[in-house]
Design a protein that fits this description.
Blueprint lengths: L1 H14 L3 H14 L6 H14 L3 H11 L8 H17 L3 H15 L4 H20 L9 H25 L2 H22 L1
Length: 192
């Protein structure tokens, strides 16, 4: 029961808003019970907590080290890790690879792992908003093309919102609405 109590402590700490502290709990747990009943779950949580703690590169390395053989995991855990891997690639400044990873993971997810699907879609919205903001509008010759390109990015980002609403993941709905609002505001400011 002590192993389970430690796992639950790590989980509560992570989801309570302190993923860095939960890493200490998961590490201690894996040192004490490397093959315990909760070891696989603790490895999964540790990898996710690394990403949440702002270490996407470390999370990717731990993912490759701890989960070389994803076949040991449930189908849903494999889907979660595929989505997280894409998110971390994007956070680690590998936007094209991360975007491809997320699109493939979303295609596989169907109606499974809604929280992670919504996270993936929110990450795609962030990427699209950044791309939109990077399109210059100062040059008169390319102004119309720039406006159309920005509008296309905004439209693609907005297209991610409807599936997220269907998933009923309120945190990610609000995250996307906020990002879209900022994107439209930036677009309007740049047009003035």
């Amino acid at each position: 029961h002590l192993e389970e109590a430690n796992y639950l402590l790590g989980f509560a700490t992570e989801w309570g808003g302190n993923p860095s502290e939960s890493l200490v709990v998961y590490e201690r747990m894996l040192d004490t019970w490397p093959d315990g009943a909760f070891a696989m779950d603790a490895r999964f949580r540790r990898v996710e907590a690394m990403g949440r703690a702002g270490d996407p590169h470390g999370a990717q390395l731990a993912l490759r080290q701890d989960f070389r053989h994803w076949s040991n995991l449930s189908d849903d855990d494999q889907r979660k890790l595929a989505i997280l891997a894409g998110v971390w690639l994007i956070q680690d400044r590998h936007q094209r690879r991360g975007t491809r990873q997320l699109i493939a993971a979303l295609a596989d997810a169907a109606d499974r792992v809604p929280y992670y699907q919504a996270m993936a879609r929110s990450t795609l919205v962030e990427v699209l908003m950044a791309r939109s903001a990077s399109v210059p509008l100062e040059n008169r010759r390319s102004f119309h093309r720039g406006v159309r390109t920005r509008a296309a990015y905004l439209s693609a980002a907005k297209a991610q919102l409807d599936p997220t609403i269907t998933l009923r993941e309120h945190r990610w709905i609000l995250t996307q609405l906020h990002a879209l609002g900022l994107g439209y505001e930036q677009f309007g400011d740049d047009l003035l």
